[in-house]
């Protein structure tokens, strides 16, 4: 069989395995439980504690922070498995070993090996009058199985939603990381930062007996006062050791650099100076500080203190696709998956600071269940024009309805509509070409579905 035929067969088998996962309840059909995931992991030989775990929760910045932790720990000669969500182009992106997506062949092999065990748990759940394992629960089990098979030295997991009952919480993490907490998924998590923070603090719970990590360390990014107060109460109730940004560690300095920034971080154990981070924005500098301290906490337990040069080497390799990512020049096109007000605020600040656009076109496509006006409040001052389209999802907001919402914030003549994202990009490019600006730019945002499609259209699907 030729290499081309093998690749085609591999993709066919991957599509089959992915279809089997998609046949389960989707990611918006949440089951508030941990026991179902635990049953499957135990049947498979306790794969959920085959390696120590670092878990990342929060509202925004989780994926970037998880990728940074992965890079720093990997640079210190440990093999890392990373589980993040969602994916942009292929489901294999969610399960990473050695810094890259798991091979399609491995994904399919492990899926087929665990399928009979998933069927056993499904049958038990149905007999109890409960729903089968969901897509995300099954994918979490698959990830832990891949990591046990590799095997890896450490697992970095990103919580899908919340924390307390998220399927990733089946493992007792040695280090529990909290990125900034904001309002999102209120239907499931609550309408206040206090409620949301309390649910996310559930990653500090110990569900294994005996626990492989009975005394976790919490590493907490700078939070709004309400969220921090709630986290402080949860940490005190559990008697957990915590280090909090601006109390136990801090970002000391940052300077713009070509294709990124130089940062200096006061960690718990040392000061890490002039580290190049190839990502844009103040938020990514803070994410890097959190990631560095999380790695410090984990590697201290492993008796492997961080080395400045090794940290610098690790962070210099970080990528975060779809997060303030420059995917084209001439005109410049930046893609970012901002889908809530906090993320939109960060995007607006990053575009202003990192990209010297003197004329900006926002290409926007969002989901109907998001806070559209909260996002527009943050973005409208940074845009000279909007081109509105519709994301490729059943949850997508209608183009005309979204355009009407945008017209409540900006002049009607500065809002254009496009039937699809390709047409929207063409209109945006035409607007920049006709603007006469020295440095025009296009920002594509509204959801990761929007970003994924834009990356494909612009040839950046890798």
Automatic annotation (TrEMBL):
Listed GO CC annotations: cytoplasm
Domain Mur ligase C-terminal, first and last residues per copy: 322-436
Keyword field contains Ligase: yes
Cross-referenced SUPFAM superfamilies: MurD-like peptide ligases, catalytic domain, MurD-like peptide ligases, peptide-binding domain
Keywords: ATP-binding, Ligase, Magnesium, Metal-binding, Nucleotide-binding
One Pfam family from the record: Mur_ligase_C
Catalytic activity: (6S)-5,6,7,8-tetrahydrofolyl-(gamma-L-Glu)(n) + L-glutamate + ATP = (6S)-5,6,7,8-tetrahydrofolyl-(gamma-L-Glu)(n+1) + ADP + phosphate + H(+)
Stretches assigned to coiled coil: none
Gene Ontology MF, one: metal ion binding
Entry EC number(s): 6.3.2.17
NCBIfam families reported in the protein's UniProt record: folC
Protein name: tetrahydrofolate synthase
